[in-house]
Each structure stands twice: as C-alpha cells, then as structure tokens.
Amino acid sequence: MFRLSEISPSENIVIQCHDNPDADALASAFALYTYFENAGNKARIIYSGKFEISKPNLLEMLVQLEIPAEFVKPPANFPFLIVTDAQYGAGNVTRFDAEKICVIDHHMEEKTERDTGVINSALGSCSTLVWDLLRKENFPFDKFPNVSSALYFGLFTDTGGLSEIYHPLDRDMRDTLVYNRGLIKRLQNTNVSLAELALAGNALNNFVKNDEHRFAIFKAEPCDPNILGFISDLALQVDGIDTCIVYNVLPDGAKLSIRCCARDVMASDFAGFLTRGVGSGGGHLDKAGGFCSRARVAEQHTASSRPGDILDDYILARATEYFTSYELVDAANHGLDISKMKMYRKLKIAVGHVHSSDVFPAGTPVIIRALEGDETIIAADDIYFMVGILGEVYPITAEKFARGYALSQAPSDIKINELEYRPTVRSGITGEVKELADFIRPCTARGEVRVFVAPLSRYTKVFTKWSPDSYMYGREGDFIVVREDDVNDAYIIREDIFYLTYEAV
Predict the structure, then answer these.
(1) Cβ proximity of 109 and 86 under 8 Å
(2) DSSP codes joined into one string, 15-72
(3) Which helix (H) or strand (E) segment is 375 a member of?
(4) What three-state secondary structure class fits 346?
(5) Burial of 323 by CB count in 10 Å (0-12 exposed, 13-18 middle, 19+ buried)?
(6) How many CA atoms are closer than 13 Å to the CA of 323, on its beta-carbon side?
(7) Quick check: 55 and 193 in contact, CB under 8 A?
(8) CA-based nearest residue to 57, from 8, 85, 93, 24
(9) Distance from CA of residue 319 to its chain's centroid?
(10) What is the share, in percent, of the chain residues with pLDDT greater than 90?
(11) Cα R_g (the chain), whole angstroms
(12) How many CB atoms lie within 10 A of CB 434?
C-alpha cells in the first residue's frame, strides 16, 4: 500500500496538475505540497496547457489560500514528478520529462507510466484520496487551515456541491474537515460566469426526452463539474421529467450529473448502472454523478449508425436499458411465491453485533456509514447493529437477534483490518464519529433462522421494512431472501456474502 512517507525527504518534488486545472486538482496539489514542505522536501506546484487559469473563483482560491501554482511550458526535466488528479501521459496532461514518476488520482486507471503512487476510482474527488494519505501520516490539519479549506472545496466542486458523493471516505472528509465557511461561500458564489450561464442555456436546449419513462438527457459543452449540477437541478424542475442526466464529453470520457425524484429510481443506483464496467459513479437518493471512460466504452459498446460521439450513443442506450432492466419488490406486499423458493439457514459463523445504545444514548439519531451507503436509525436499547464478515452493517431488533444468534467468547470471523472501509457510526446531533470495531461483541448464528431464497435472474429492487422510501438492489446472481418467521421481511444478499453465510436445509 502506497504511503507518502515512502518518499525520501531529500527529493526535490514537482507536483503537476492537469492542464486547465480545476479546484480539485489545485487542492490536492496544494495539500501534497504542504505535506512535503512540512516533511523537509523542496516542492513546487505546476500546471501547463494552452491557457493560464482565468476562472474567477479559482483565481480567488489561489490568492486566498496562498496556493503557489506556476504556469510552466515545456520543455523541462524534473527529478521527481507527482501527477495529481490526472495520470502521466494522459491527453489532458502536458508531458514533461521526469526521472521518477508518481501518480495520485481518482479517475479510471489508464495505461500510463508510473514508478509509484495510488489510483482509487471509487472516490468522488482526488482531494479525498490526498486527505486519506495525509491522515495516515498524522498530518496536523489543525495547523494548516488553508489545506483543509482547499480540500473541502475540491470535494465540493468535483461532486456537484457535495450532492454526488460516491464513497464513505468522501463523506468522512466532508464531515471531518474544519474549513473557512465564509471563503467557501464566496468561492461558491463566484462560480458561474456569463459564458457558463450561456452554456447552461444551450445545454437545456440540447436534449433527448423519453416520455414513457419520464427521463431526459442533456448534453453540455466541456465545463466545470459544478455547472453540470447547476443544469441538472434546473432540468429536474421541468414538468414531465422525473429523472435527468446532464453530461459533457471530454477527451478521456464523459462526466455525468444525475437528478431523480421518482420513488423507484435512486440517483446513486442509476449512476452506478450507467458507469458499471466503464467508470465509476454514485451519490445520494436524489442526486448523483459519475464518469464514463472513453476507452472502456469503446471496448464494450458498439455504436449505432446515428451521428455523434460514441459516448452520446452509449449514454442514451444505457439509460434506456436501465428503465426496462429491473423488477420491483415491496417487502410490505411483495407477492413472492415462497412455495417455489428454496429453504436455507444461516451458517454457525462468528460475526459481530453492537448495541446501538452502547455507542450513543437511546433516542439519538445515528448514521450508519458503510460501503453500502449511509442509513439513519434511532439508537435504542432494543436495536442492534449487525456487522457481517465482509464489513456489511445492518440494523436488527433485539427480538430477532435473540432468535437468530448466541453470544460467543470466540473472536469473530470479521477481518476488520482487511476491510476496504472500516464501518463507522455518527451522531446525528453532535456529529461525533465512532468506529464500530471498538464496540463489536462476537456472536454466532444459531443456525435456527431459516429463510426462503431465490436467485435473481435480472436486476431487482427491494423496498425493505427498514427503508420503505429507498431500496436495496441486486444483480443477476445475487439472492432475494424472505425470513420464514416474518414473510414481510424481504431483502437482497450479495452473491459473495450469501455463499459465505448460508447453507441449504
């Protein structure tokens, strides 16, 4: 695993943003610059391309946060080059010769040169990736408030004003950083130029609408990601549109902004469907975003004969496919024929549980944060958090826990230190964050809870008892499960988790 501390303090480091850098590129470069300068390195920030930065809020950001970004034209040779929010050799990065190359990025990985670095395309911003690297080095954020403000603004702009956040680490950074609220507000309010306002107007006149499924697709010229969110917020207010995609085509792919107001379409789910296998996407119930890699789309999609970019064709085809791809199940009245479903029982495996009122006092609104997303419940003496062997978290009543599990002295099978994300809970009142790992008590499934199970043959959405206003979703190969002792408790279990935790009766 890459660590910033692997880089020697004797290195002279040049940190390069992509051409025409945005707030996320500048913020991640500034945070790296500050870290290395504080660690004893000599560092500088550069960018190149056809034009110098001219966007008003970026110029204000450079001045107010004292970001020493330099505009540099090739040729030049650097001993150690770090490319951030982009990849060395990519089409949006001017190439400089370098003896050693490091890449720190959150876009889909391309075939590019690098000696070291890290790429995590699941994250909504490069600022998040850099923040995570810095906190692993115990960086003193409290001593560098400008870094915190820069990183927050980088995340803000790259996720449509925080409405298109994909990953729990994005949410953790958003909720943790102490930033200059007045400055962020000022930067927000100098975000749209007259030219961008005209661009938004042109995009709203350039659309495809599907009346049957009440969705519309709007294409914009290349612009700041925030402008896409601005356009999609306007588009969703149009009568007859319940779901909209606003996108622009870039040299390496397409940036998407998505808005939804239909009960059976979660924006985060729609974004994931559109970008699956070709990029990354996610967000919230009604707002999301994503990115589709041009190279990945070209590998997987055959364009139609109609004129236009292959990305135009892909987005329209994939969006249309989504609305005919799924079945809808409501746990309260699911109509599933359980007589045709197979019976399974929980394996006697060691998992974990947490009394919700041990973490926060009963009556506290608590946000469960895990890879599956955020879920809010009210802490109570009779509500537990179950933690599965892959770190999945879900609430359960004390009554159901007593029927299905027994307390255990043996350690659980959860490899907490190997999880992609260690689940946390956050107080909805104070904002205090606690790791569930600090409260987990081992327990073992009794093997007495039995469930009716059927494999999914197509994409399926399930409104559960716990979340009647949002749904779980599963793909072909996953399983729909109905508890024998409560036939209105229906939910989805991922294929990999199911085979590790259940056996046929």
Answers:
(1) no
(2) EEPPSS--HHHHHHHHHHHHHHHHTT-EEEEEE-SSS----HHHHHHHHHTT--EEE-
(3) strand 373-378
(4) strand
(5) middle
(6) 17
(7) yes
(8) 24
(9) 20
(10) 53
(11) 24
(12) 16
**11: phi then psi, degrees, rounded to nearest 5:** -70, 140
Query: pLDDT tens digits for 459-492?
Result: 999 988 877 777 888 889 999 999 998 888 899 9
> How do residues 137-158 score in pLDDT, each as one tens digit?
999 999 999 999 999 999 999 8
Residue 20, sorted as left (phi over 0), alpha (psi -120 to 50) or beta, turns out to be: left
What does the pLDDT look like over 61-101, one tens digit per residue?
999 999 999 999 999 999 999 999 989 987 788 999 999 99
Distance CA 350, CA 411 (A): 7
Q: Give me the phi and psi of 113, to 5 degrees please.
A: -75, 140
242 and 216 Cβ atoms separated by less than 8 Å: no
Mean of pLDDT over the chain? 90
Percent of the chain with pLDDT over 70: 98
Check the CA dihedral 314-320-323-326 and report its sign: negative
Which pTM does this prediction carry? 0.70
State the CB neighbour count (10 A cutoff) for residue 441.
14
Inter-residue contact 259 to 233 (CB < 8 Å): yes
User: Structure tokens of 7?
Assistant: 């880089």
Rounded to the nearest 10°, the torsion over CA 135, 138, 142, 147 is -50
Decide if pLDDT at 113 tops 70. Answer: yes
Residue 348 has pLDDT above 90, yes or no: no
Burial of 277 (0-12, 13-18, 19+ CB in 10 A): exposed
What pLDDT, in 10s, does the model give residues 156-185?
A: 998 888 877 878 899 999 999 999 999 999
Q: Is 74 exposed, middle or buried (0-12, 13-18, 19+ CB in 10 A)?
A: exposed
Calculate ∠ Cα 349-353-354, nearest 5°: 170
pLDDT of 136 over the 80 cut: yes
Q: How far apart are CA 423 and CA 135, in angstroms?
A: 17
Question: What are the C-alpha distances in Å from 235 to residues 188, 262, 396, 480?
Answer: 20, 14, 39, 35
> Which pLDDT score, from 0 to 100, does residue 304 have?
65
- State both tokens at 481: 């499960």
Q: Are residues 473 and 487 in contact, defined by beta-carbon separation less than 8 angstroms?
A: no
CB atoms within 10 A of CB 372: 16
Query: 329's torsion region: left (phi>0), alpha (psi -120 to 50) or beta?
Result: beta
Residue with tokens 């080095």: 137
